[in-house]
Design a protein that fits this description.
- By secondary structure, this protein is an alpha+beta fold.
- The protein contains 14 helices and 23 strands.
- Strand 21, helix 12 and strand 22 form a beta-alpha-beta unit.
- The structure holds uridine-diphosphate-2(N-acetylglucosaminyl) butyric acid.
- The site of uridine-diphosphate-2(N-acetylglucosaminyl) butyric acid (EPU) has 24 residues, from helix 1, helix 5, helix 6, helix 10 and helix 12.
């Protein structure tokens, strides 16, 4: 018995869809909350997704109590928290479990943890995270599948990241907020989720400056306390619905967005000939049939997000001519292309790039969500395709998209879950 998502394609989308809060901010904020010393942290806008369930399990393992019954309000109480070895299955379910490394190291000066999991997008090393911890004075050991990271004390330091890694920037911030003295992260990642984390840490009493630029400065403090925070909207979920609307609108209003966070996408869609009207916190997308091919390269923020490359590729199968996507973040992030080809797409993958030859009619068939955004790309394709698309391994999709079936049903799609 397995649960699949089925989509009968060809139905126009119309109406309004509300974007949830950012998964990739949430998965950093929840581990960050444990830095609060014996107090209560309230986070609003927490999406109801499988990654949050996994993080809640990990918090409970640490003796942190969580109340997530009222809608999107997530209440964390660290009063009875204890430091234990992180080895629950949930560690291997999501990549972001490794944010407990920085947070536990920062708080207790020791963390023992299994190798974290997450989507396979090609090799995903964590060397920069570990080098950052070492620069703060920690010793890192890896034995029999477990990291053991410990320090007498953490002392602020200057850290230059060889790659502007989102994960390394966040993990070093988490370890540094309670370190002695000043930490400077150079070539830091500039993604909006990092600004959200810095805002949250500062609300808890940390002193973090420069988030959103490539130099982040952290003055260590003695203690962090409880706070209240509202998470920013999910730019990747928003982008996914915008792409769906470009493929199948009708007229779709995508609400609760920060337009600036989506400029790399909206400007590419405008280049393709998509009709988009952007307001203060919404975008209205009107599908108008003919689409031009484009070349796109994934880049760190504010460049074109690698997470949107996969949904966009599904749309590019409908453009009139050859498009090229080049991956500069995850060279092997092309598994979706093989699944799309099963549906009739003509995509030649020559990593790190793919040539998409359109327009090609797509046909519903059985496909597999090999990772989260591959799943999103298959939903886009399923909406376009003739007949019924059956998507397997949908737990990947449920890790990141809250109520995707309900949201698309409300827009007029014929989409449902089925246990087969
Ligand atoms: N890298 C290293 N060494 C490191 C860390 C990263 O070589 O120590 C490399 C990676 O292999 C990759 C590049 O640096 O080639 C960038 O990786 P980064 O660390 O920035 O990515 P991440 O933190 O692992 C986050 C998101 C991803 C998103 C990327 C890029 C979370 C939980 N994940 O991953 O989101 O694709 O940034 O923006 O925030 C998703 O949501 O589907 C997803 C995979």
């Amino acid at each position: 018995m397995t649960e699949v998502i089925k989509i009968e394609g060809g139905h126009k989308l119309n109406g309004t869809v509300e974007v949830s809060s950012a998964k990739n901010a949430t998965v950093a904020l929840i581990p960050a909350a444990i830095l609060a010393e014996k107090s209560v942290v309230d986070i609003y806008g927490v999406p109801n997704i499988a990654d949050v369930e996994s993080l809640t399990i990990l918090l409970n393992e640490l003796g942190v109590s969580v109340d997530f019954n009222n809608d999107d309000h997530y209440k964390i109480d660290t009063t009875n928290m204890k430091n234990i070895t992180m080895e629950h299955d949930a560690v291997t379910k999501l990549r972001a479990s490794y944010y407990f490394m920085g947070a536990l190291l920062g708080k207790y000066k020791r963390v023992k943890m299994q190798m974290p999991g997450g989507c396979y997008l090609g090799p995903r090393p964590i060397d920069l995270h570990l080098k950052g911890f070492e620069a703060l004075g920690a010793t890192v050991e890896f034995k029999q599948g477990y990291y053991d990271i410990y320090a007498e004390e953490l002392v602020g330091s200057k850290i230059f990241l060889d790659i502007a890694s989102v994960g390394a920037t966040i993990n070093i911030m988490l370890a540094a907020v309670l370190a002695k003295g000043k930490t400077v992260i150079e070539n830091a990642a500039q993604e909006p989720e990092i600004i959200d984390l810095a805002t949250f840490l500062n609300e808890m009493g940390a002193v973090v400056r420069g988030a959103g630029t490539n130099v982040i400065t952290i003055e260590g403090v003695e203690e962090l306390t409880g706070s209240t925070h509202e998470i920013i909207p999910d730019r990747i979920e928003a982008g996914t619905y915008i792409v769906m609307a470009a493929a199948m609108g009708g007229e779709v209003r995508v609400e609760n967005i920060i337009p600036l966070h989506l400029e790399a996408l909206t400007s590419k869609l405008i280049e393709m000939g998509v009709d988009i009207e952007v307001g203060t916190d919404y975008a209205i997308v009107r599908g108008n049939g003919s689409l031009k091919p484009i070349d796109v390269q994934t880049r760190t923020y504010p460049g074109f997000a690698t997470d949107l490359q996969q949904p966009l590729t599904a749309l590019l199968t409908q453009a009139d001519g050859q498009s090229v996507v080049r991956e500069t973040i995850y060279f092997e992030r092309f598994k979706h292309a093989y699944e799309l080809n099963k549906m009739g797409a003509k995509i030649d993958v020559n990593m790190p790039q793919a040539h998409i030859n359109g327009p090609t009619p797509l046909y519903g068939t059985k496909v597999k969500a090999t990772d989260l955004r591959c799943g999103a790309s298959l939903v886009v394709a399923g909406l376009i395709a003739e007949g019924v698309t059956e998507i397997h391994d949908i737990y990947h999709i449920d890790r990141g998209y809250q109520s995707i079936v309900e949201k698309l049903t409300d827009l007029g799609a014929n989409i449902w879950r089925e246990t087969i």
